[in-house]
Design brief:
The structure is a single chain. The protein has 398 residues and is an alpha/beta fold. The chain is built from 15 helices and 13 strands. Helix 7 links the parallel strand 6 and strand 7. The termini are far apart. The model has no long low-confidence stretch (mean pLDDT 95).
């Protein structure tokens, strides 16, 4: 927290100069004021060198995410109260900043999940920041180009968040910041909140899987490992009504993880934060789920519908044994930016509305003025706000 505070203060005071210095110190990359902004994305990738099937998969993801999110556009409405005309109107934010992780964790899919709802909302200025690297990820470059994001800066960490919040000569400030990052990025987002909006402070990934003995233990094992591989602090929880099935899942995890590239992360994650809960009646699992409020919930038991009715706190819910959470991460169309660490009790996954804001409009005519003014005067008297009352009484005519 203190390191981040100092970085923010330095960028706030010295702008580009500190961005260049921190990039050299932390990323070991030399920048100058002319190349902080990426001027031509096409130089960073070649279509011929990218896997055509993978490009097709990204295009499917883009199309499905668009279809799902277009339905989220909120509607304006009008109400007449005692002849006063009231309206609620939605408008897009002027500008947003999207943080795209680099280094060990490169997630092109997160770019899709952030850019598309911003575009559907009608945001005119979409800014992307991403840590500099000697070898810019070509799929990220392709997607930025494909999605027509033309303001991209190669700067990462807390300094990128500071630049988005306070601006520099090169990077103009934005209204709200989105996107996952490491602990420094998360801390910086918390500290600049208030100056700008933020989406959420993301914690480690998590899943609760509810499965009975009718399931394939290998499938359930893979669901748990899919979350565990994100991070040593990720949490994977299995709720089942069968000790025998739980033992089979553990056995399958041991067998399957050997072939996985992140087997050490999976091992540590499951050892530190993995949990199996045995219940006699899986219908009772909703109480545990609502207490945990997991980022992801995968229901694959014969009681799915009954459990779902009683679940109030979960970010993304996946129904049935074929609905592995990876579909939501990539191509189903829902958003994978979801509340973690119990935040599903009070917040939702990322959507179009997060890139918009609403205003209310009040239009009082002579008739509604006469009908409502005495009520304003009465309440203003109770609150001892004489100027409020005066602003009404001064308009009264005999």
């Amino acid at each position: 927290e203190e390191d981040v505070r100092l970085i923010i203060e330095d960028v706030k005071k010295n702008g580009d100069e500190k961005i260049i210095q921190f990039t050299k110190d932390f990323d070991k990359i030399s920048l100058n004021k002319n190349n902080i902004k990426i001027s031509d994305l096409k130089k960073l990738y070649s279509i011929d060198q990218l896997d055509k099937d993978t490009l097709e998969s990204f295009k499917v993801a883009i199309d499905n995410v668009k279809k799902f999110h277009q339905k989220q556009l909120p509607e304006n409405y009008e109400v007449i109260n005692m002849n006063a005309r009231l309206q609620s109107i939605w408008k897009p934010m002027d500008s947003v900043g999207l943080y795209v992780p680099g280094g060990n964790a490169v997630y092109p899919s997160s770019l899709i999940m952030s850019v598309i709802p911003a575009q559907i909302a009608g945001v005119k200025r979409i800014v992307c920041v991403t840590p500099p690297t000697e070898n810019f990820n070509p799929y990220v470059a392709f997607l930025l180009d494909e999605l027509e994001v033309n303001e991209v800066y190669q700067v990462g960490g807390a300094q990128a968040i500071a630049a988005l919040a306070y601006g520099t000569n090169t990077i103009k400030s934005v209204n709200k910041i989105f996107g996952p990052g490491n602990a420094y990025v998360a801390a910086a987002k918390k500290q600049v909140f208030g100056k700008v909006g933020i989406d959420l402070v993301a914690g480690p990934s998590e899943i609760v899987v509810v499965a009975d003995s009718n399931n394939n233990p290998e499938w359930v094992a893979s669901d748990l490992m899919a979350q565990a591989e994100h991070d040593e602090n990720a949490q994977s929880i299995l709720i089942t009504n069968s000790k025998d099935f739980a033992d089979k899942v553990l056995e399958k995890i041991e067998n399957l993880k050997r072939i996985l590239s992140k087997k050490e992360i999976i091992k540590i994650s499951l050892k530190k934060h993995g949990l199996i809960i045995l219940l006699d009646d899986l219908n009772l699992s909703s109480e545990i789920i609502n207490k945990i409020a997991p980022e992801h919930l995968h229901l694959q038991s014969s009681e799915n519908e009954e459990i779902l009715k009683k679940v109030n706190n979960a970010g993304g819910i996946f129904l049935g044994n074929y609905s592995t959470e990876a579909f939501g991460d990539y191509v189903a169309g829902t958003n994978h930016v979801l509340p973690t660490s119990g935040a599903a009790k009070f917040s939702s996954g990322l959507g179009v509305i997060d890139f918009m804001k609403k205003s209310s409009i009040v239009e009082i005519n002579k008739t509604s003025f006469n009908l409502l003014s005495k009520h304003v005067e009465n309440i203003a008297d109770v609150e001892k706000l004489d100027a409020h009352k005066l602003s009404v009484t001064i308009r009264q005519t005999k």
